[in-house]
Amino acid sequence: MLPKTQRIPRKLFGLLLESKKYLNSEHFSLRITSSEKARIAVSVSKKISKKAVVRNKIRRRAYSVLKEFIPLLPPNLFLLIAKSGADRMKSQDLKKELSLLFKKV
């Protein structure tokens, strides 16, 4: 899990969802809004899985990969939204897809 200073509170999710800047990959969507500091949040909808165990597993795996990217990111707010199929990804594929997505930023 990321430190609280690097995560985004839920009250800012609405601002990020309305953002015009976004990037898409096969299993994730990334919403971006400007900020003074790089902060990240991962969102996994109940549409992906009804089971909280599965949603939390996706979230934990994404956060573990994102720890590497935080020092390299520009000062923005990033909301990573999981799409269907993200629960069946292997860890190598997850790391590759997220690295490609954040390199576009």
From TrEMBL:
Q: Which Pfam families match?
A: Ribonuclease_P
InterPro entries for this protein:
Ribosomal_Su5_D2-typ_SF (IPR020568), Ribsml_uS5_D2-typ_fold_subgr (IPR014721), RNase_P (IPR000100)
User: What molecular functions are annotated in GO for this chain?
Assistant: 3'-tRNA processing endoribonuclease activity; ribonuclease P activity; tRNA binding
Q: Identify the keywords attached in UniProt to this record, alphabetized.
A: Endonuclease, Hydrolase, Nuclease, RNA-binding, tRNA processing
Q: What class of enzyme is it?
A: hydrolase
Q: Which SUPFAM superfamilies match?
A: Ribosomal protein S5 domain 2-like
EC number(s) per entry: 3.1.26.5
Q: Which NCBIfam families match?
A: rnpA
Report what the protein is called. Ribonuclease P protein component
- Species this protein is from: Candidatus Zambryskibacteria bacterium CG_4_9_14_3_um_filter_42_15
